[in-house]
Amino acid sequence: METQRIMEFPHRNMDKRPKKRPRLTWDMPQPVPPTKVLPTIYCGQEFANGTVPNYAYSSIYYKGVPSNGSPPWRPDDKDGHFVFAIGENLTPRYRIMSKMGEGTFGQVLECLDSERKEIVAIKVVRSIHKYREASMIEIDVLQKLAKHDIDGTRCVQIRNWFDYRNHICIVFEKLGPSLYDFLRKNSYRSFPTDLAREFGRQLLESVAFMHDLRLIHTDLKPENILLVSSEYIKVPDYKFLSRSMKDGSYFKNLPKSSAIKLIDFGSTTFEHQDHTYVVSTRHYRAPEVILGLGWNYPCDMWSVGCILVELCSGDALFQTHENLEHLAMMERVLGPLPQHMIIRAE
Questions:
Q1: Which domain holds residue 323?
Q2: Does 38 lie in the same domain as 120?
Q3: 332 in helix, strand or coil?
Q4: Do residues 256 and 205 make contact, with C-beta atoms less than 8 angstroms apart?
Q5: 202 and 152, same structural domain?
Q6: Is 219 a catalytic residue?
Q7: What span, in angstroms and rounded, lies between the C-alpha atoms of 147 and 193?
Q8: Across the 346 residues of the chain, what is the mean pLDDT of every consecutive 10-residue run?
Q9: Is 181 found in the same domain as 118?
Q10: pTM to 2 decimals?
């Protein structure tokens, strides 16, 4: 069987899941007065070989883009995203190779670390006060996880962090695609039961690891579970052989390695913090969150259950964007809501 790296496939009508609506108002950026940004300040903290004190230095600017210099300063876009060009440097240490993704928090860039000679993923947070504050909490969580995850097998590993032109930048190890991306590029064909079971085992161990540290992820979903490797193999898809091409060959992709890691700890909370606001992406949101009853560790376990169903079926279990419909779908699957939850929600 041929081993390849995941590529984009020209599937049509691929994304069958409902499009997610914009985040609710509690998660929208608050307007902040414009501030003058000093683009020459750089500070960082290294975690790989012990803590390094913060430091600052002045960047040298050129009309062109030098091999080891900083690019010309540009204003951020209207949403506070960092504006860049492929091939430029993100500080003299990191050269931008490609854009890997974008979300409400900012962008993820694939970069070459010239000091460690490795490819890394850098999360460049929007230059908005709310997201800068959240990113500093995420760094605190990542540092705590790295301290206890000695083998680095449960959660994505932080390499470094720094503040560049008013953007908090978090440097991570480079991993493979998310389980959602893998499903999407595989036309939402489900994973084999044995493989889904192995994903489930690792996912439960990782969540238990976080809970033992008194941390609640609150945003578990296939998008936030990454394969460690991008390599995959092609295998016959026997469910589709009867409808296959004339030569009888119809294949689906399976990851070569089943190793996974959790990512995105921007919404992670400690046990002692406020647990009354809305958390989790809609499809994976627990009933107690929808009913406004407050939440705790079980909200992560509800998300795990929804994820496992999706990995085995290829479809999200609760495909809705409305609270009442969501609760009705839960009752259709699991029966009536417990009476004690209904009484507390009245």
A1: 3-23+176-345
A2: yes
A3: helix
A4: no
A5: no
A6: yes
A7: 33
A8: 43 44 39 41 39 33 48 88 94 95 92 96 96 93 94 94 96 97 93 96 98 97 97 83 53 94 93 90 97 96 98 95 96 94 88
A9: no
A10: 0.77
